[in-house]
Design brief:
GO biological process, one term: synapse organization
Protein name: Limbic system-associated membrane protein-like
Strand content: 35-45%
Strand order of the largest sheet: 3-2-1-6
């Protein structure tokens, strides 16, 4: 699973590994679940936009 920021098609993560040099972005996944969560904390106005899970 990968997370992509649609504004610039920047690949943010693959699995739980992040490829963005910003510690506010983290990916969470439980082995007991099919859910993958992208969390941005603290969120800022610049983070506005669509993020896509692929």
């Amino acid at each position: 699973v990968s997370w992509v920021r649609r504004r610039d098609w920047h690949i943010l993560s693959s699995g739980v590994l992040t490829y963005i040099n910003d510690g506010r972005f983290r990916v969470f996944h439980s082995e007991k679940s099919d859910d993958w969560d992208l969390r941005i904390s603290p969120v800022a106005k610049i983070d506005n936009g669509t993020y896509e899970c692929q």
